């Protein structure tokens, strides 16, 4: 035959040309051709998943490998930064090959939702296993692992009873003693969004101004950097997600173990609403060419096996309540009261949170 194909040419396209060629010489009917092409295309879709992921954790490899072993569905993965991946999907439009976006923080899931990137998924399995507060009401996205935003403190210079809530960070006694990453980072924006829900916009802005006045230096670096700053005596308090501290607890590196020994952590607001909790989550994309495989992948992420990988691989809590991970670092953090605010609310408050951060000078 005169037509040539590259390795990237879809199998069903090759068969289509083959059947057209055969029809021209032996008279195979068009109905048979159509049935064969449809069935071949469905088979190709069933065995392929295009995943766009902003989770940069090596331990997630086990998730993907075991999903393929269980289902036979091959995963093609594109990794990138959270916001660039969202922009890529938006720019690709209806030609996007992406089936699933998996990312961190409800704020980013909300942004993808607002751009119309997701399609609704109706799954009894997901609805029965995932708490309502950790998934979109219309099935546009689902949370599969949880992390809390904690306050880290110097064991040498701060007593646990000296601070009990996020609101306490605004107390003038902490002037020059607080470290945090940028307020514009989604982890802090989501915390501010939760405060907007409980305190209102005006009081949250007062809080942000006071915390800015209490900073030891201009926000810089990630959460691990803040923990190291506390251990080094550059500040006495810091905000961090739990899994960063858990990594230090589990580390075999002497310098990292030393940080964990010098730094204590507490879960804020245990006397009222509970500690702010956020998620890693995923959704099926609007133009997903392999929708069935995409839904199967989301349902796999809610399985006991996958939930344990989240916990033991990246020190995040399972969101399926019946799953009890065997993770010494998570166990060492102890039990705590979590804020059960629906994460959709945190997403909706993101624009207000950003305005508060900008107006308050909390950079």
Structural write-up:
The chain has 363 residues and is of the alpha/beta class. It has helices at residues 11-26, 30-46, 61-71, 82-92, 106-114, 124-129, 186-199, 201-213, 223-231, 242-250, 254-262, 291-301, 304-314, 328-333, 343-348, 350-360, and strands at 48-53, 74-79, 100-104, 142-154, 178-179, 237-241, 263-266, 277-284, 317-318. Strands 1, 2, 3, 4, 5, 6, 7, 8 and 9 form a nine-stranded mixed sheet that branches. The protein is built from 16 helices and nine strands. Helix 3 links the parallel strand 1 (48-53) and strand 2 (74-79).
Count of individual helical segments: 16
Round the Cα radius of gyration to an integer and report it: 24 Å
Return residue spans where pLDDT drops below 50 for at least 5 consecutive residues: 1-44
Class based on secondary structure composition and strand pairing: alpha/beta
Measured distance between first and last alpha carbons = 64 Å
| Biggest sheet overview | 9 strands, mixed
Mean pLDDT, rounded to whole units?
Answer: 88
The SSE order reads: HHEHEHEHHEEHHHEHHEEHHEHHH
Helix share bin: 40-55%
Strand content: 5-15%
Total strands? 9
General shape? globular
């Amino acid at each position: 035959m005169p037509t040539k194909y590259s390795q990237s040419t879809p199998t069903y396209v090759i068969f289509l040309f083959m059947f057209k060629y055969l029809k021209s010489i032996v008279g195979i009917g068009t109905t048979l051709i159509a049935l064969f092409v449809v069935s071949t295309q469905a088979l190709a879709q069933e065995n392929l998943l295009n995943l766009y992921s902003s989770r940069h954790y090596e331990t997630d490899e086990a998730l993907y490998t075991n999903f393929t072993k269980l289902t036979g569905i091959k995963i093609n993965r594109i990794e990138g930064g959270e916001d660039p991946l969202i922009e890529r999907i938006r720019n690709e439009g209806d030609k996007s090959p992406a089936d699933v976006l998996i990312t961190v923080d409800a704020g980013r899931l909300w942004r993808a939702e607002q751009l119309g990137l997701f399609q609704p998924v109706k799954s009894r399995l997901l609805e029965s296993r995932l708490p309502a507060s950790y998934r979109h009401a219309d099935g546009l996205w689902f949370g599969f692992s949880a992390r809390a935003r904690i306050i880290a403190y110097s064991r040498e210079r701060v007593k646990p009873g000296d601070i009990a809530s996020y609101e306490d960070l605004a107390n003038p006694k902490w002037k020059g003693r607080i470290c945090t990453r940028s307020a514009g980072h989604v982890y802090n924006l989501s915390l501010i969004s939760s405060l907007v829900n409980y305190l209102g916009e005006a009081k949250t802005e007062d809080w942000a101004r006071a915390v800015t006045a209490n900073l030891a230096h201009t926000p810089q670096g990630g959460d691990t950097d803040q923990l190291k700053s506390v251990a080094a005596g550059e500040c006495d308090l810091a905000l961090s997600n739990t899994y960063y501290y858990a990594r230090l607890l589990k580390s075999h590196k002497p310098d990292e173990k030393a940080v964990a020994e010098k730094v204590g952590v507490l879960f804020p607001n245990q006397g009222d609403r509970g500690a702010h909790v956020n998620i890693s989550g995923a959704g099926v994309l609007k133009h997903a060419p392999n929708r069935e495989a995409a839904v199967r992948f989301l349902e796999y992420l809610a399985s006991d096996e996958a939930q344990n990988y989240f916990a033991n691989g990246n020190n995040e809590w399972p969101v399926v309540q019946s799953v009890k991970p065997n993770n010494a670092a998570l166990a060492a953090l102890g039990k705590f009261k979590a804020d059960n605010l629906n994460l959709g609310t945190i997403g909706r408050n993101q624009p207000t949170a950003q305005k508060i951060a900008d107006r308050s000078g909390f950079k």
